[in-house]
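Sharing a chain and its predicted structure for anyone who wants a worked example. Both blocks are below, sequence first, C-alpha cells second.
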Amino acid sequence: MKPFSRVLAALATLALAAPAAAQDKAAIVKTYADIAKAGYEDSLITARKLQKAVDALIEKPSAASLSAAKTAWIAARVPYQQTEVFRFGNPIVDDWEGKVNAWPLDEGLIDYVAKSYGGPTDENPYAALNVIAHPKFKLSGKEIDATKITPKLLSDTLHEADKVEANVATGYHAIEFLLWGQDLNGVGPGAGARPFTDYAKGAACTGGNCDRRAAYLKAATDLLVSDLEWMVAQWGEDGAARKAVTKDPNAGVIAIFTGMGSLSYGEQAGERMKLGLMLNDPEEEHDCFSDNTHNSHYYDGLGVRNVYLGRYVRIDGSVVSGPSVSDLVAATDPKIDAALRKALDDGMAALGAIKATAEAGMSYDQMLDPKNVAGGKLIDAAVKALVDQTRIIERAVAAIGLKKIAFEGSDSLDNPSAVFE
C-alpha cells in the first residue's frame, strides 16, 4: 500500500471508530425513532403475510394451510419482539401494546378448552365464557349480541372485559391459541395440537362452531394488522410517538435507556423468565401454545441490543443505523461502553443457548420442569446475564450525567417470597 493510501485508510478507520455524533442527542433519538418505524413496518409486513395465510386456511382448511398459517405467525414474531424495547419510556406504545401482545390469557374466554381447565373463577367470571360457542351472552350485566364476530366486538367489548387483564381477546396470543389450541403437555414435550378440521365446513367440523371460529380468527388477524398500521404511523415523520421523543432529545435519551433497562430487568428477566422458573409453570411461558418462547426471549434481547448500538437489520436484509447511545456513552467513558457492549453480547449468548437447545428438541416449557436441572440452569444463566446487563445500563446512565432511572421491577427478582404469598 502506498503511503498516501495508508493515510487515507487510517483516516477512514478513525472516522469509523470516533463517535463523531456522540454529543448530538437529536441525531441519536432520530436513529432510535427510525429503528422503531422500521421494526413496526416489518411487523406489519409479516402480519399481512399472516393475514393472507389465515385467509387461505379459512378458504380451504387442510393440514398444509394450517401449518402455513402457523409458520407465518412464528415469522411475524421475529420483528415484533424486537420492538418491545420501545414500550417502556414511550407511553404511546405502552398504552397500545396490550392490544397486540397481552399475555397470559384465559383462553376459555375465546373457545373450547379441556375439562381440566375448569370454569369461572373469583378472579375472572368469564374465564370459560367461550364466545365462539355463544352468539349471545351476558357481560358486566349487559346482554351482548355476538352473532357477528367483528374486530370491533373483540377490541371494544371482549378485550380485558370487566377490566380483567386475563381476558385477552385480541393480538398475537389470541391468534396463537386459535391456530395451535391449548398445550396440554405441561412440562412434557409437545405444543398445542388443534386439528385443521376445527376450521372445516359442514359435517367435517370438529370442536363445533367452525364458522364462528374462522370468523374470530379472521377478525383477530385483521385487527392485528390495523393496530400495527396505526403504530407505524405513530413513528412516521409527523407521528405522535416520533414527536414525543424528538421534541426534547434529553428526554428521548432517557426513553431509550428506560426501555432497555425495564425490558431487560423487570419484564424479561423477571416476569417472563424467573417467575416461570420459580413456579415451574408452563402457563407462565410467553408463547405457551406454540412453544415459540425461546424465540420471543431471543428477539426481545436483540431489540435491546439494537437500540443501544443504533443498528437494526430489517427482514429484507437492509440495515437501519445511525448515531447511538453507545456513541454517547463511549464519548464519556469508553470502558463502560465496552462493558455494556460485552454484557449485551453475553446476554445474547445466554438467550441464544436457550434458543439453540429448544431448536434441538428441548422446548422452553420442558426447561421449566423442576427435574430438568440442565434446562433450569439455562434459564437461570440468561436471567443472571440480563440482570448483570441492567446493572451496567445503570452505570451507563450515570456516566452520561442522567439522574437514576426507575426501571420496571418484578417480585421474582426484588421480593421472591411475595411470589408464593
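Comments welcome. Residues 1-22 have pLDDT under 50 and may be disordered.
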